[in-house]
């Protein structure tokens, strides 16, 4: 019975992973409005997963979540405005302005709805806005850079390739626990393996770019992006686990069979996206 259940879960994870890769290719390769729209939808779902996990949305007496509340509604409006500005402007100064106005809007709901919401719900709403929607938007911003159709894949190399190498090295030689309370199976050896693997993959990808596009210096730049991105990716993975443990939940959602919710699958990508964008901007200058 147990082997049948494990086999079903493994099959679900594999099928879901293939679908996710196809969806990533179908949205990232054309970029533009298609990518922006996909990220917008993913951001809204991730935001709502976080607000439920962090207690912004209350549960009724039966233990079920109530309907979307005013804080979540204003959050969706903010996400919509943010992605419209991101798509039409791509000026990060405007994005900062949107997030300042977002704080004012959330506080508006808090003040005029008082005492319906408490301070923790307000702070967690704003946290959820930055954590998923804002950080994920850097996938789009990276895609819009010069040679962005290539550079955007460093976000996934820094996270998914890192995860693969960390797992393989950890299984083979992992002995020292990296974060024994949060994730007992992760090891320091695996973490180092993930960093080295992502750096090597980034360097090889940079070599391909230098050769195919007649460019220079991308080997070093993307090796650094891969290595640093791997470190940040692992922090993102552990951060998502910490939030789940704090709120005593197994998964953020059930949207992706075998994986959980958006936040379960994209926890590391969310962290690597802005780091990849800013590192590339800084080093290319």
List keywords for this structure.
two-stranded antiparallel ribbon, 285 residues, 11 helices, 2 domains, mainly alpha
Write a short abstract of this structure.
This protein has 285 residues and is an all-alpha fold.
Task: Tell me what the structure shows.
With 285 residues, the chain is mainly alpha-helical. It has two domains: 31-144, no CATH class; 146-285, no CATH class. 75% of the residues lie in helices and 3% in strands. The chain contains eleven helices and two strands. It has helices at residues 2-28, 32-53, 70-88, 92-112, 119-143, 148-151, 153-173, 188-212, 218-246, 262-265, 267-284; strands at residues 177-179, 183-187. It has a two-stranded antiparallel ribbon. A hairpin with a 3-residue loop joins strand 1 and strand 2. Helix 2 runs antiparallel to helix 5, helix 5 (119-143) crosses helix 11 (267-284) and helix 8 runs antiparallel to helix 9. The chain is globular, with a radius of gyration of 20 Å.
Please give the radius of gyration in angstroms.
Answer: 20 Å
Distance N to C terminus: 58 Å
Number of domains: 2
Quaternary structure classification: single chain
Shape verdict: globular
Briefly note the structural class of the backbone. mainly alpha
| Secondary structure: helix percent | over 70%
Stretches where pLDDT is under 50 for at least 5 consecutive residues are 5-9
Query: Helices and strands, in N-to-C order?
Result: HHHHHHHEEHHHH
The largest sheet is: 2 strands, antiparallel
The percent range for strand residues is: under 5%
Number of separate helices:
11
Arrangement of strands in the largest sheet: 1-2
Overall residue-averaged pLDDT value: 88
Number of strands: 2
